[in-house]
Amino acid sequence: MIRYLPLLLLTLTLANAAEDSDWRLWRGPGGNNTAPPGTRPPLRWSETENVRWKAPIPGRGVSSPIVVGDQVIVTTATEDGQFVLSYARADGSIRWKERAHEGGIPDKLHRKNTAATPTPASDGRAVYAAFHNSGRVVLTAISLKGERLWQAEAGAYECDYGYGYAPSPTLFGDTLIVSAECLASGFLAGFRKSDGKELWRTERKVKTSYSSPIVARVGGRDQILLSGAAKVSGYDPADGKLLWQIDGSCSATCGTMVWNEDTVFASGGFPNKETLAVRPGGTPSVLWKNNDMSYEQSLLYHDGHLYTLNDGGIAVCWDAGTGEEKWKVRLGGPVSASPVLAGGRIYAMNERGITHVFSPDPRAFTKLAENTLGDEGFATPAFAGKEIFLRTATNTGERQEWLYCLSGE
């Protein structure tokens, strides 16, 4: 057995390295928009610098790319339906294209929303996508070869504002978790990954909110974090039962909650503006709150501090324990994408395709680079290994979306 140990360790190391270079979920492998320690993305780029490849995306969408092994996967919507597309990570060529739906595209959408907004999720064996179609949220599972495995209706959905659907699904063990909040039929539900069978369902019949559920380990236990309906809530991912809930944030939120070992953080912007920190548990308590707003984008937690590039294009750093503002700098907006920590830097893109790169330093704001690609930037980039996968669009002549692979090597 001893003679085979080095080979076994090498095999495990290679397997872990492969997973470390993946970005399989909305907001990355940890669900917190923080890339693994070995990630080494480029600092600067342009149309002529550090672009490994550039590939067109048909139609329109604002879902983020995910990276699974040698594939980069996005969703999009065209006049022909809603699709999941796979690109070869090596050169951007199309690996496969699977139509999830033909027709059934929502009639009413917010001008910033699309019929392909939720980011898909993968467990390394299949891809799971959620689309709003024909008044329902429908889940589709596709193999990494592009073969449909199953399709299941998650539930009816009708946005109270007529703005469309946004939450991305997430994974917990063998469960695919999805939310859809509206007064008529809102829910948080879990489905079996292997066949789409419903495992549990919790009612969330509230005025429409758009935040994605995320599973986090806080206070020594796994829990689904979800904001909206002027509440901050925690649910058991095993059965969907409510663990705790407290008044806070806003009626409608879009950003995904963030956390540390014992505290969760939420922010919203409609109809009021509020960012707050909550200590969850049997009797949850608000540690601090303010009147700042990160409505469309999610916050970023790192090393005892919170960072954001908010809707108005203002970068802010707070002490996560006390809420003390450490610095505030106007960079320019508007902003929809969320900031990402990768390679010891924060990358934050605005809706004009400008990505600001700055230091995660609470002592002072230090800008490291400013990079522009395209005319639009709504999707949060994915970071994997030495690469950044960026979805943007150009509006010169006919609008066209692009998927970029950026690499300094």
Plain-language structure description:
This protein is mainly beta and 409 residues long. Among the domains are: 1-55 and 326-409, Beta Barrel (Lipocalin); 63-208, Lipocalin, CATH 2.40.128. 4% of the residues lie in helices and 45% in strands. It has one helix and 32 strands. The protein has one helix at 5-20, and strands at 51-57, 66-68, 71-78, 81-88, 94-101, 121-122, 126-133, 136-143, 148-156, 170-172, 175-180, 187-192, 198-203, 214-218, 221-228, 231-235, 242-247, 258-259, 264-268, 274-279, 285-290, 300-302, 305-309, 314-319, 325-330, 340-342, 345-349, 354-358, 367-372, 382-384, 387-394, 400-407. The strands form eight sheets. It has a four-stranded antiparallel beta sheet, with no helix packed on it. It has a four-stranded antiparallel beta sheet with strand order 2-3-4-5, with no helix packed on it. A hairpin with a 2-residue loop joins strand 22 (300-302) and strand 23 (305-309). The longest helix is centred in the first third of the chain and has 16 residues, at 5-20. Residues 1-18 have low confidence and may be disordered.
